[in-house]
Amino acid sequence: MRNEVIRWGRGGVAALVLVGLVVAPWVVDDYTTAILARTLALALVGVSVALLTGVAGMPTLGQTAPYAAGAYACAVLGSRISDVGVVQVAVAAGAGAALAALTVPLVVHARGVIVLMITLAVGELVVTVLGRWRSVTGGTDGLAGIPAVRPFWGLPVLATDQARYLYTLVVAATLVGAVLLLLRTRAGLLLRAGRDDETRLRASGHRVPLLVSGAHVAAGAIAGAAGSLLVVAQQYISPADFGFDTSALLLLGVVIGGTASVGGALVGAALVIAARDWLFGVLPGHAPLVLGALFVATVYLLPSGVDRARLRPRPTDVPPVHPDRPAVREHAGAAPELRT
Amino acid sequence: MTPLLDARDVQVRYGSLAALAGVDLSIHDGQRHALIGPNGAGKTTLLNVIAGATRPQRGTVVFGGRDVGRLGPAARARRGINRIHQRPAVFSTLTATENVVVAALPRVIPQRRWRPGGRRRAAQHRAGPLLEQMGLADVASVPAGHLAHGQRRQLEIAMALAGRPRLLLLDEPAAGLSATEVGRLVELLRALPRAVAVLLVEHRLDLVYALADTVTVLRDGQRLAAGTPDEIRTSPLVRQAYADGVA
Lengths: 340, 247
Ligand SMILES: Nc1ncnc2c1ncn2[C@@H]1O[C@H](COP(=O)(O)OP(=O)(O)OP(=O)(O)O)[C@@H](O)[C@H]1O
Ligand SMILES: [Mg+2]
Hints:
B: alpha/beta; L-phenylalanine transmembrane transporter activity (chain B); L-isoleucine transmembrane transporter activity (chain B); nucleotide-binding (chain B); transport (chain B)
């Protein structure tokens, strides 16, 4: 009953937010609209972070790597070959997935903090490569003047900020919907099971490395697709868009939003990005400090995030049983029987 | 007749401690084999070696006529070695039903392969009756983390059975269960098809004698004795081992 109410409540909030997002470009100015479009792209990367961190239980700091791969693939494609949106999204997703697949061998057997360090290193490596590989990426100057996108063959190019914003909204909403559907399938169930107890998953006969690889590649594809949205939103990209601060902010947003929920991750990532942009204006130079403090407060006060903070009761207490040393009580009755 | 499982000369060392010092164990199809011994005898370690969770330093494990020594736990589970852990291992945020569905998935055959969700539906079909059998039907949609200790253990048994085992490894399945639950467990194990062989680690000897047709006694990582329940019950060696182990 209570769960029903919560479900309906959440559905209502989601619907309101969606309506707000659709009407936003007619309410705010062009500049804000463009910022909103960029925030949508980042929120979509946040969803890919949530998929790994929350759903699969593998915190990551490296989703900026496939995000960058997708963005640059889209920018090069958009400048030289095709301005068709669906092609750009598909190619960007493919580039993100390919980059993730390349790094899978590094992370498939590692867990926890090690993964954070490896993914962080991969993200930084990608930024370095972007800065050096001038012929393709334009180096630290980045790529500018990327032509506007047309969503589909035969449609006009999107010449206004409003139109480009609505394009990013439609693509982001479609991909979030796809992720939500994915989570309802067998794969989603197995990812959640793996987060709970990987050893048990293996003992039941599941190929955990395959599952982990699949999750990384899928998250890479989503981040890559988000990269193509950034290109549409800014029409300009540079390595600075994909730095460590972005990864850290996204992880922060996902943790604040509730790692296990895609909706929470979206809201959390969007809020954190908005907070950064706002703080950047009012407290120049101090934004990272404030966000860092926020992060520490979040992790300590709300271990399961805003979304779940009050909804999930604690599991019933387990009698303390050491894995290999069960309570002596259970054994006491056994031996005397033999002696009789 | 070649045994279903044949473990030979299994040795596992932790530093200077020999948890298993060259143990042989074979289990035939349909056998009900109990493994007993005092705390620290190496029972759980032997189960881990059979299930592929622990690599022995020496020794071989042959299952179904094939050397499975190089296979990990997942591959062995797919070949039919299923287990429950000494400390119940379940997926705590998944409901009881979802737990059993996950456990059933690797070995279900969907009715129509090409229909999306077919495997999941087939697994779902297996889950219902198993939960019913374990007395968990009422809590089928409760997250496993919210279940009581005894219920979690029963859930893990349902999960092990959902994997269609040829060899079921049970590490102290009765620990922490109420009298009613133990009764249900004994009934369930008795009713298992003969095609399923069972290796039961249990400290409650009444259960061992009620269920097993063969008993192996371990102590200090070595096989002390093996035989029928009657032989073991009357063996002075075994009594001595238990008396020492408990003292
Ligand atoms: N991972 C490990 N690291 C170090 N020592 C271990 C490890 N696992 C088991 N041992 C030791 O190996 C010996 C055998 O342990 P095992 O768990 O197999 O005993 P057991 O017969 O199952 O005992 P119990 O009845 O208490 O469950 C014990 O002395 C134990 O402390
Ligand atoms: Mg044990």
